[in-house]
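Replying to the earlier thread about multi-chain prediction with a worked example.

Input:
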Amino acid sequence: MEKSDNDPHIPTSPEENTVKVGSKNSLLLWRLFSFFIVFSIWEVAGRADISIAFPPFSKVLVAFVEMIFSGEFFVAYADSLPPLLIGLFITIIGGVIIGISIGLARSAEWFIMPLLIIFQTAPVSALIPMLTYIYGISDTSKIVAIVILGMPLVALNSYKGIQATNPSLLEMSKSFLASQVITILFVILPSAQKMIFAGLRLGVSGAFIGIVLAELLITPTGIGDLITYNRFIARYDKMFATIVSLLAIAGLTLSLMRLFEDWLFPSEKNN
Amino acid sequence: MKNGSDSTEIILKTEDIGVTYQESIVALKNVSLNIPAAKLTAILGPSGCGKTTLLKVIAGLIDPTSGTVKVRGKEIVGPGPDRALVFQDFALLPWATVLQNVGFGLRARGVPKKEREETSLNYIREVGLQGFEDKYPHQLSGGMRQRTGLARALTVNSDILLMDEPFSAVDEQMRRKLQEDLLNLLKIESKTVIFVTHSIEEAVYLADQVVILSGRPGSIADIVYPEIDRLGEIELIRRQPRYMELVDEIWSSLKRYVE
Amino acid sequence: MNFFSFSRLMRRSPFWSLIFWAAVWELVGQMGWMTLLPPLTDIWFAFAELFKQTAFWDAFAMTARTFGIGLGLSIAVGIPVGILMGISNRADKILSLWVNLFLSAPITAVIPALMPILGIGDATVIATVILFSIWVVIIDTQAGVTHVKDSLVEMGRIFGCSRWKIIFWIIIPSALPEIFTGIRLSVVRAVKGVIVGQIVIALIGFGGLFNTYLSYFLMERFWGLIIVVFIMSFTIIGLVEMLERRIAFYAKTR
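Result:
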């Protein structure tokens, strides 16, 4: 099946679609190769003197290790973690409850839905600077930022999950004379599980965005502040190292969540 | 087992075709066939026996692991202007009209628009779709969609027409109509047809030569020559005793290959 | 996410609940329960003030410019990359890691890194817009390409289409519905990107204005600007949805 790598992916047989090109090992190799390419380009670009504010990969790597051992990362993440977790907790619980409520009750939907859509689509981040005025320079600002950015996503996904319940399952439940409560608990909610979980993942990604934004703009603590501070003192290598660490952590968390989701709810593969 | 008759030209040959996937799954094994020109050869077998794979090898879409396909003595290297394909799921461009779809093969060859449209309109008429030139596939029934696919295959004037279970995605009544129409069409256009089907009835009804494939691994179990009189009234074909006998014969030998 | 949120909103009754919330806002504002939330009527008057200021129009021009250029580049680059990843296994294996990473990562964290390199101006905001919006274009385009029905591609090969013909005549038209969904989503993100970019920099465009109004506690103008920005973004998204619907007519029959 090697030649299909170069040609347009025009399947030569029905079986080809189900054949994963290469085994798991090969996939890992490709990932490593991918990292290698990107880091090499970074190294070369960094040395090319594009800007003093753009250090090559090697410098950033050194700064990265330095910051681990100096404990700077530890302190910053320790500052960010509590509000992140609290904010996530509120986002998830609140989001799921709201989402399920508007999914089940038309009246609730009428009230809440437009707000959710506005909060999901519009650039709500414009409101974040305002949080200082209400909550001051504190963890509360961070928590509110997380909730504003994450909850609409969780709620909307829960709502969609409920809406997507297979109508024939509902008919089935009715034909067996099940009460509303039973139907909700044993048909609707299990059916919505997958979308709710997907919503949680989106909520987590929103939470990361919220806390970074809050820390960049409002508070002198946490990871966002570490980025701003290092930029301020022109330690661009440390700034980049912090950003990379944040992207890596966010990326890993979300990947793990996705893997967990896939494991919990295997989707039907096309065959 | 009657012998395939006279001195008809053998337009296509498959020589010892074998197809193996991932070094262990054998889809086809030792398939050697002679396809006579201007006749309809059916490839019949239960699901999963490899008949579509065989057709795709003949079409040039799949490279066989072993063996060759020769058209008029020359080995094929992929798809070619001598072979056209009619698809089970119609394979129509959903954003294009019937006229545009039928003209697709000509467009791919760089035929200018005016000529393209003329030829397309001609075949649209021939398959009975006149009046539907500007319709989109989603506005057509299954039978009409397949007629579009057939018209498209005819415009490119290939000598060999390959049909992959073309009437299976269509309901029973429409299928019978399409079968009749195909026979009528073949009276006008002299084409070699290789027709894949899982219906014994359909094979006996349409074919001059029925190749029976047994599955896992797909190989030739038998070749039967219906020798049914199709020159007369098409409606009477199914009443001929020979037809009923053959269907029974084939079914009894096929039974053991069906899961 | 593939539901036409805003347009459906207009047609269904829940839209009228916005009127309800507007009334609530007015009430809260009039009662003075939250100093940060002036009544809607006051904000309405502030609109006139807002539109008179050159600062507003400068910010508007800057936003429109950077949004347009950034989004345009995202689409112009994102679609070919998505097609490439859909067609070539290798490209997919090398790039998908990064595309997926940046798709949901907090890109906002990268903005401070852009500022010293690209300066405090258009370039940084454009880069932010691109970083926010390009990934979803790539992913959705790739999905559209991989979902092209095999039989359509086979049909193309049978009738002698070259590789490029297959891409332009079969694959791209077939993938258009997904591509347009990707564009719609990228517009949503680009709007967020252009605003966040300006806010983080805090000195330019609408970001700068928000900052100024907050610093001087001109809450009517602040909220007026928020509403203007929100309405602008909904208008753009609504337009894209309309376009998307035009294309979707054949999406079901593929």
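Chain C touches chain A through 65 residues (CB under 8 Å).

Feel free to reuse this layout for your own posts.
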